[in-house]
Design brief:
Strand content: under 5%
Structural class: mainly alpha
Distance between the termini: 13 Å
Number of domains: 1
Amino acid sequence: MAWVYLGIAGLLEIVWAFSMKQSEGFTRLTPSVVTIVAMIASFALLSISMKSLPLGTAYTVWTGIGAVGAFLVGVAVLGESISPMRVLAALMIVGGLVLMKLSTR
């Protein structure tokens, strides 16, 4: 279950990063509330997953899901630029996440 909690925590990190962008510096109420709620839920699930997963693995996977997910949302939803170098960087992060998963019991 720890990996499921960690995956959901990572997805919530994408939600709070996107909603933080939408909050325009916490000047818009609804995206600001979504940011705070998603942040709290993400941290809570991360902490639960850390009961059985190593710190380095859990934190790396959590931030990696958030980083790659935020990159994808930025490109797909916000129209941010995409380049071969950015795609390569995202693929390298995903490769690191796979290695972290494979190296942990």
